Amino acid sequence: LDADNYETDPCLEEIRRAENYSWMDIVTIHKDKLPNYEEKIKTFYEEHLHLDDEIRYILDGSGYFDVRDKDDKWIRISMEKGDMITLPAGIYHRFTLDENNYVKAMRLFVGEPVWTAYNRPADDFPARKQYMKFLTDEA
Fold it and tell me: Where, if anywhere, are coiled coils annotated (predicted)?
């Protein structure tokens, strides 16, 4: 995606329309820009899941999303300017910055945003069970 022109990017607009991403905001994760930076960085790195998809579009900077595979092993996903990721509801994950210690990201949601993270273990949620069923069906 064209992160330099995200406000007018027709590809982003098409994705938002097709996926019904009706809400968005922009967050900058940097020690000079994010209140309670140290606390939030630690929170982002705690292994957790959400009950809704997590959609992030990197507008500037870089970082890593770590996700668990079907064998419960970590997979590190490098994200940089122009990348978009959708983490499905129920997937265990975490986020960390790289050595640049800076990322500016768009957060997208279907409907109103829900920020609740459930730290592992959180296996009893329907979203987790549905995600695990998806993994089983795909195998």
Answer: none
